Fold this sequence. Notes:
The protein is mostly helical. It has helices at about 5-30, 35-55, 65-70, 90-105, 135-150, 155-180, 180-185, 200-205, 220-225, 245-260; strands at about 75, 85. Helices cover about 60% and strands about 0% of the residues. Strands 1-2 form a two-stranded antiparallel ribbon. The radius of gyration is 22 Å and the shape is flat. It starts with a helix and ends with a helix.
Amino acid sequence: MDESLRAQIETYLSHLDGLIRRGRPLRDTLEKDPTSKSAIAATRVWQEDCGVTINQLSGGSKAHWLARSFSEAFLMRSAAGNAVEGAAPAEIVNRLVNVLEQAVASLTRSDDGPIISASSEAPPPHRFDFVHNLELRPVVEQAYTDSRRALEQQRYDLALLTSCGILEAIVTDALEHKGLGALTTSDTPAGKISDWPFEARLAVAERTGLIRSGCARLPLVARTYRNLTDANGESHSKATVSESDARRTGQVLHVVMRDLDPGR
């Protein structure tokens, strides 16, 4: 097996593992409460992500065994064996998890190689599936790519600004999901969470156990990163951002991402 195919398979295996880990708790929740609106919404997104991956692994062919298995997971069989609509949500999720596990087994075959017709393009990264705001996920995903590119191009101010913006966005998302009522203490800032200072959001997230103490490593220029932009959000040169500052900020971002997504 050539190295490019091996790397592609490893990418798919990692992505499939993430989908399986997302699916199991959804199944458990739906078994307890099939009408849970939040679980149903999350399941819909998860199923779409599964469909994209299955389509890629099937080479876009609906006749491929994996694509057929995916489609059949949504059907309920009658006593006569005929397919009818209406399988229970938890059962559908369980079947899809089984399909994903079949894909993993196929990719890890050691005889004649995997029987999956993987497309030439690797599946898109899903680093921010832990973010509760679905509309925010693609925004921070693109911002993450931009921050890495800026770092490679030695645009350290832009790399730091973008990393800080992601950090603020995902911490705010976690705080808002927990709810203001669960966060309020004598030292909690007043007003909406989105109006709190950056450092206050980090402090409250740490105090409530959403994140650990990784933000202590943030350089001063990162803690005051909003001072590096003008009223239009454009960066300016009020402070010098070093390569060390930019890289350390990126490292802290990774730590917080792991905190908010323990399965990473």
